[in-house]
Amino acid sequence: MSRPTARAIAAAVNAGGSTRPAVETALAACAGDQLNAVIRVHRERALTTADRVDARVRAGERLPLAGVPIAVKDNLCVEGLPATCCSRMLEGYVAPYTATAVARLEAAGAVIVAQTNMDEFAFGSSNETSCYGPVKNPVDPTRIPGGSSGGSAAVVAAGYVPVSLGSDTGGSIRQPASLCGCLGIKPTYGRVSRYGLIAFGSSLDQIGPFATDAADAALVLQTMAGLDPLDGTSAPHAVEALPGGDALRGLRVGFVPGHAEGLQPAVRAALDATKARLQAAGAVLVPIELPHERYAVATYYVIGTGEASSNLSRMDGIRFGHRAEGADLRAIYAASRAQGFGTEAKRRIMLGTYVLSAGYYDAYYKKAQQVRRLICRDYETAFAACDVILGPTSPTTAFKLGEKLSDPLQMYLSDIFTIASNLAGTPSLSLPAGRDEQGLPIGMQLQGPMFSDARLLAVAQALA
Questions:
Q1: What is the pLDDT of residues 427-455, one digit of tens each?
Q2: What secondary structure letter does DSSP report for 362?
Q3: How far apart are alpha carbons 313 and 309 in whole angstroms?
Q4: Domain residue limits at 137
């Protein structure tokens, strides 16, 4: 059954319709969630907001997201609502302010109906590290939805809401979008303010939308994007409207030949089919190399864990977070962090503390930053020869719940194709590209040069 897009809902409300039907439908879907994708439903707040949107429209305002129900990941602050990052460490924490990205969506008429499950502090590729339990894939509930924004992907793929918000540090929007069968975009670093996003890796994190189509994703991204004085890394660049005309004819599409190696056969077939579609539409395929991409996973897990260790040092039971009893300050710190953090969070904090420590900083963190610069240069060279880069989002379709929990390295390799874009700060998205023999979704990744977000969305729209 086809469900209304965000654009259709907003158009109906701006034409004089009520926000209530779409919001009530979304609230009922979230309340009936069987996927553990939703951790909190905010019915009273949503209905109050919906009535306020109706009043604004009656007063003559035209709102681009009028009455559109959205769900937001649990690491985005919304004033007066819990923000726990799905961790016992932040149990009971209530946000005192609203993230800029969320505030801009609400100002444009969007209505928050729920908060979504995620890997604890966004540490994970399967949405199995949450203190609220794992999220189930809406296509096959015995499988993972991807992580860390698995809840946000699942609620869109399952049709609870037309759009949702996630965050992406190494693939946490694109990988779950691929495995659940929806579209997800990681914007250019700085395109969307990070103010109000509880940080994992400050030089890597970006907020982005999930949607059922590129036009809805573009609408949400255009609304959120732009300079924010509260975030010194935000850029003064609005997102352009999707360009008209033929987005594919003459498009130079780069591809890395080595990306086809080791893929699940169905994923490789989908990659070949997407290439054929692009050529048939007039695009030109250009083989390229990203020679330092092979080091991206190792580089990411040095830089990312180092930044995570620094960011989470404030979660000590005194300044923030769960507080345990102890005989002295050292005992309180130790007990609070031991009880508050899950296994994967502890693993990443310890890795990050090690690579930042005296005697190891130059060997690990400094070296990783040098390799990161080489990866950025690889992209600059590649985009001199092509307009976008096509490749798989994930090497496989969704695996079984629990399958990789005991093997962190194999879990980390789930993001092998997505991480480099975070290191370079470039925009990238995952779009649906068919299904495997078991009916599980397959996603293809499109990457572009800095601030080419609109072009990527236009290409995705043309491929839909």
A1: 999 999 999 999 999 999 999 999 999 99
A2: I
A3: 6
A4: 6-224
Q: And the tokens for 294?
A: 């092979």
Task: Tell whether the model's pLDDT for residue 404 goes beyond 60.
Answer: yes
Pairing of strands 183-186, 163-168: unpaired
Q: What is the pTM of this model?
A: 0.97
Number of structural domains the chain divides into: 1
270-297 pLDDT, tens digit each: 999 999 999 999 999 999 999 999 999 9
State the catalytic residues: 73, 148, 172
Amino acid code (one letter) for 387: D
Q: Which amino acid is at 403?
A: E
240 pLDDT more than 90: no
CATH of the domain at 65: 3.90.1300.10
Burial class of 41 by CB neighbour count within 10 A (0 to 12, 13 to 18, 19+): buried
Contact 117, 127 (CB under 8 A): yes
Residue 186 lies in a domain: yes
Task: Decide: 73 and 120 in contact? Cβ < 8 Å.
Answer: no
Angle at the Cα of 122 from the Cα atoms of 118 and 126, rounded to 5 degrees: 60
Token pair of 427 as six digits: 């925009």
In a domain, 337, yes or no: no
Closest by Cα among 113, 10, 117 to 71: 113
